[in-house]
Amino acid sequence: MPLSEIIPGVQLVKGKFVDGFGFLTSYLVHDGGEVLVIDPGTAGHPGGEIVKAIESLGLSPRHDVVGIVCTHGHPDHIGGVWRLKRQTGALVMIHEHDADVMETPSLFIERRLRLSRAGRLAMKVDKSPIRVNFRGVKPDCILKHGDEIRVGSYSLRVMNSGGHSKGHCMFYLTGKRVLFSGDEVNNYPNDARRFYVDLSGSLSAKVTALEAASKLKTEYLLPAHDIPHILTDVSLQFSEAIDGVRQFQDAILRVISGRGDADIDQIAFDLRRTHGVPLPTGHEALLPTTIEVALRTLESAGLVEGENGVWTLA
Ligand SMILES: [Zn+2]
Q1: Is 256 found in the same domain as 194?
Q2: 67-125: per-residue pLDDT in tens?
Q3: How far is the CA of 187 from the centre of ligand 1 (A)?
Q4: For the chain, what is the mean pLDDT?
Q5: What is the three-class DSSP state of 42?
Q6: Cα dihedral 179, 182, 187, 189 in deg (nearest 10)
Q7: What separation in Å is there between the alpha carbon of 33 and the centre of ligand 1?
């Protein structure tokens, strides 16, 4: 059973390790005969392991699951929702800005990634964790920043981070110093600087959310794609994640400055060639998508200007 206890009442259900994406991890929060599932993963992983994990805690998947909550609407976090809802009958919860992709998974490749028509067609048959060939679910409960999710006597505070995707939320288990960080911190394993965002995301929102989260005095940082970070290791993850965003933006500015002007394909080419900063892995669309969002952030900061897809320093 791939179930391990972080602290009493918080369990990790370990999914498989997927090259380029890292782990697919789900979490259970349980107290007083109730259990909440955080991020059920893809349709396959951790998949059926979650129901087994609930049973191994002496709880009933049919009666004791108070909710299935997703940090955001990416396929590797919501793909398992339909089946788990059928097995448990639990309420499904997600932030309002990611509710559309939960209900209609193909919107992820239609609106959230920088993909050509051919790229979109290829992703329909994709076998990676961000494939979209699974059934969508209309959420039962729409989350807002500041909401509280109750499980027994526990309470999780909803913190809309809005960086990785506009509806991305982190959940803070009040009183236990546990932060479920989804993909906002430790988006990939082993290097907190590596990240990607979708087209609805924002690098300024990401940095603001990371700075706010770093002040929570979290002792247990529980990401979806990396191992848990505990006690002294935690603050390092936040500072490296913020550094990662700044280094990525600086690298884009260096490319534009070096070339005089550049489009997104040229920027992606130069970033891949120079290996100066950690780049998103797992799917080729993630780098140009993240560059596009970064350029928008740099544009609103008055650092770059874009016209007809060509970017120059402002
Ligand atoms: Zn994600």
Answers
A1: no
A2: 999 999 999 999 999 999 999 999 999 999 999 999 999 999 999 999 988 888 888 77
A3: 7
A4: 93
A5: strand
A6: 70
A7: 30
For residue 73, report the distance from its CA to the centre of ligand 1, in Å. Answer: 7
Where b means 16+ CB within 10 Å and e means fewer, 273-301 reads eeeebbbbebbebbbbbbbbbbbbbbeee
114 CA to centre of ligand 1 in angstroms: 15
Nearest of 162, 175, 155 to residue 216 by alpha carbon: 175
Rounded to the nearest whole angstrom, what is the distance from the C-alpha of residue 278 to the centroid of ligand 1? 17
Q: Please give the distance, rounded to the nearest whole angstrom, from the Cα atom of residue 177 to the centre of ligand 1.
A: 23
* Helix, strand, or coil (residue 253): helix
Interval between CA 31 and ligand 1 midpoint (Å): 28
Q: Kindly state whether residues 37 and 72 are assigned to the same domain.
A: yes
pLDDT in tens, 199-216: 999 999 999 999 999 999
Which domain-ending residue is among 242, 264, 281?
242
Using the mean position of ligand 1's atoms as its centre, give its distance from the Cα of residue 91 in Å: 21
Parallel, antiparallel, or unpaired for β 34-38 and 65-69? parallel
Q: How far, in Å, from the CA of 164 to the mean position of ligand 1?
A: 7
Give me the number of domains the chain comprises.
2
CA of 224 to the centre of ligand 1 (A): 9
Q: What is the maximum alpha-carbon separation in the chain?
A: 63
pTM exceeds 0.90, yes or no: yes
